[in-house]
C-alpha cells in the first residue's frame, strides 16, 4: 500500500465512506422505512430531516463564516440538493416502495427504474461538472450497472416480465432516480466549495423547510399527533443510521471523489441490501446473484482505481481584486471564475498569456486568514507586465495543498514562499 499516491488514497477513502453510507441506506429500505407505511411519505421525510437538522445544527454556527459567502450558484445547488435529493427523491422512492408493499406495483418495476440513477448522474457530471474520465472508467462503470441489474433480477421474486411501466409507482421510481442522480452532481458542486459538515446541515435545514411547506399544504402535519412510540423509535433510528449520520459520512466521501465515482460507489446499496436479506431473513442468494455480487465488487474497485479526472483547462478574464496579494508582497491577478467546479485549494498551473506559457500558482477558495469570501487568484512565475482585462488560459497540473487559515499574514507569506518554491 506504500506505493499509493495521496490522490489515490483520497479516492479510496472517499469511495469507502460512500459505500458505508450506502450500507446504512440499505438498512433503511430493507428493515426500517417499510414499518412506517401507515404514515404519509411527506410526513416521514419532514420528521427525519427535522430531527436530523436538530442533531446537526451546531455545524450551522461553526460553518457560518463560510456559508455566508456562498455565491448565487452555490445557493442554487443547495436548493437543488435539498428539493430533489432531500425532498422529492425521498418522497418518490418512499411512495414507490409503499406501493410495492401494498401490492399496488411490482418490486421489479421499482428496482429496474431506480437503477437508472447512475446513468443520470454520469451524464449530468459530464455536462454540468465537466468531469472527464478515462474510457476504462466508463467500461467498468457500465459493467457495475449491468451487475447491479443481474443482482436484483437474480432473485426469485424479481423478473423482468413483472416490470410494468404504466403505473404511478413506475413514475415515482423514475423521478427518484433522476432526483438522486442529479443530487449527487450538485452535491459535488457544493462539497467543492464548502466543508462537508456545512453541506450536510444545509441539506437537512433547507429540506426541513421545504417538507414543512408540503405537509402544511397536504394537511399531513397533524398526523404528528398520531405517531406512536414504536414509530418514534424508528424515526430516531433513521436519524442515527440512514439519515443524518449516513449523509454526514456520504458528504465526507463525496468531497474526496468525482461525482462519477460516487454514483458507482452508491451501488453498494443494493448489494448490501440483498446480502443483509440473506443474513437476517435467510433468503438464499442464487448462484447468479453470487456471481453478480463478485462482478459488482470487482467493477467498483476498478471504477475507483481509474477514477481520477483528466487535466482541467479553463479560460478566465483578469479583473481588479482586493489587493491581498500585493499586501503580502506577491503580484497576483484575480480571475472572474469564482464558480469553478473544482475543489478549493492551491494548485500548480500552466498558463498561456498572449501565446506565451508560464508556470504559476492558482489559489481558489476563501481567504481564511483575512475572513474574506472566495476568490480565484493567479501568480505567474517570471511574468512582468499588466494583466488587467487580459483573458488567460489556465491548465491545472496538480493540487498542491488545501486552503487553510493562518495565524497572521506573516505565517501566510512564509507559506506562499514555500508554495512558490514548488515551481522550481
What does it look like?
By secondary structure, the protein is α+β, with helices and mostly antiparallel strands. The chain folds into 2 domains: 6-305, no CATH class; 313-421, Elongation Factor Tu (Ef-tu), domain 3 (Beta Barrel). Helices cover 58% and strands 12% of the residues. It has helices at 6-32, 41-56, 58-62, 64-67, 72-101, 107-114, 117-128, 135-153, 168-193, 196-217, 229-239, 244-254, 259-265, 268-281, 287-305, 324-327, 409-421; strands at 313-319, 332-335, 345-353, 356-367, 372-380, 391-401. Strands 1-2-5-4-3-6 form a 6-stranded antiparallel barrel. Strand 4 and strand 5 (372-380) form a beta hairpin. Helix 1 crosses helix 14 and helix 9 packs across helix 13 (259-265). The chain is globular.
β-strand number: 6
| Whole-number count of domains | 2
What is the radius of gyration computed over CA atoms, rounded to a whole number of angstroms?
Answer: 24 Å
> For the terminal residues, how far apart are their CA atoms?
29 Å
Give a short account of the largest sheet: 6 strands, antiparallel, barrel
Q: Average pLDDT value?
A: 88
State the assembly state of the protein chains: single chain
Order of helices and strands: HHHHHHHHHHHHHHHEHEEEEEH
Helix content: 55-70%
Membrane topology: Multi-pass membrane protein
Pfam families: EamA, Flavokinase
Enzyme class: transferase
Protein name: riboflavin kinase
Amino acid at each position: 500500500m506504500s506505493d499509493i499516491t495521496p490522490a489515490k488514497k483520497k479516492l479510496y477513502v472517499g469511495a469507502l465512506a460512500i459505500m458505508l453510507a450506502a450500507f446504512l441506506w440499505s438498512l433503511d429500505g430493507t428493515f426500517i422505512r417499510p414499518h412506517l407505511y401507515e404514515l404519509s411519505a411527506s410526513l416521514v421525510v419532514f420528521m427525519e430531516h427535522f430531527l436530523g437538522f436538530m442533531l446537526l445544527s451546531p455545524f450551522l454556527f461553526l460553518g457560518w463564516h463560510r456559508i455566508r459567502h456562498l455565491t448565487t450558484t452555490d445557493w442554487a445547488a443547495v436548493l437543488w440538493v435539498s428539493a430533489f435529493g432531500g425532498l422529492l427523491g425521498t418522497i418518490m422512492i418512499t411512495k414507490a416502495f409503499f406501493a410495492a408493499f401494498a401490492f399496488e406495483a411490482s418490486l421489479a418495476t421499482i428496482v429496474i427504474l431506480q437503477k437508472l440513477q447512475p446513468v443520470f448522474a454520469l451524464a449530468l457530471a459530464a455536462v454540468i461538472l465537466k468531469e472527464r474520465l478515462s474510457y476504462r472508467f466508463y467500461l467498468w462503470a457500465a459493467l457495475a450497472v449491468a451487475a447491479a441489474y443481474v443482482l436484483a433480477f437474480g432473485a426469485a421474486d424479481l423478473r423482468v416480465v413483472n416490470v410494468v411501466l404504466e403505473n404511478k409507482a413506475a413514475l415515482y421510481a423514475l423521478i427518484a432516480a433522476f432526483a438522486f442522480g442529479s443530487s449527487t452532481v450538485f452535491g459535488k458542486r457544493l462539497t467543492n466549495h464548502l466543508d462537508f459538515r456545512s453541506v450536510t446541515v444545509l441539506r437537512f435545514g433547507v429540506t426541513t423547510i421545504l417538507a414543512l411547506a408540503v405537509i402544511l399544504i397536504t394537511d399531513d402535519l397533524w398526523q404528528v399527533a398520531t405517531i406512536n412510540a414504536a414509530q418514534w423509535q424508528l424515526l430516531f433510528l433513521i436519524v442515527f443510521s440512514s439519515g443524518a449520520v449516513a449523509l454526514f459520512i456520504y458528504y465526507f466521501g463525496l468531497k474526496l471523489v468525482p461525482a462519477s465515482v460516487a454514483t458507482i460507489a452508491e451501488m453498494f446499496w443494493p448489494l448490501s441490501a440483498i446480502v443483509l436479506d440473506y443474513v437476517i431473513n435467510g433468503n438464499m442468494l442464487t448462484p447468479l446473484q453470487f456471481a453478480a455480487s463478485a462482478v459488482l465488487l470487482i467493477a467498483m474497485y476498478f471504477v475507483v482505481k481509474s477514477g481520477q479526472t483528466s487535466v482541467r483547462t479553463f479560460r478566465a478574464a483578469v479583473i481588479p481584486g482586493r489587493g491581498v496579494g500585493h499586501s503580502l508582497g506577491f503580484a497576483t491577478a484575480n480571475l472572474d471564475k469564482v464558480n469553478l467546479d473544482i475543489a478549493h485549494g492551491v494548485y500548480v498551473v500552466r498558463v498561456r498569456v498572449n501565446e506565451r506559457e508560464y508556470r504559476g500558482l492558482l489559489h481558489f477558495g476563501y481567504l481564511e486568514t483575512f475572513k474574506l469570501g472566495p476568490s480565484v487568484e493567479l501568480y505567474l512565475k517570471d511574468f512582468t507586465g499588466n494583466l488587467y482585462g487580459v483573458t488567460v488560459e489556465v491548465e491545472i497540473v496538480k493540487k498542491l495543498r488545501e486552503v487553510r487559515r493562518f495565524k497572521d499574514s506573516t505565517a501566510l507569506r512564509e507559506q506562499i514562499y514555500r508554495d512558490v518554491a514548488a515551481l522550481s
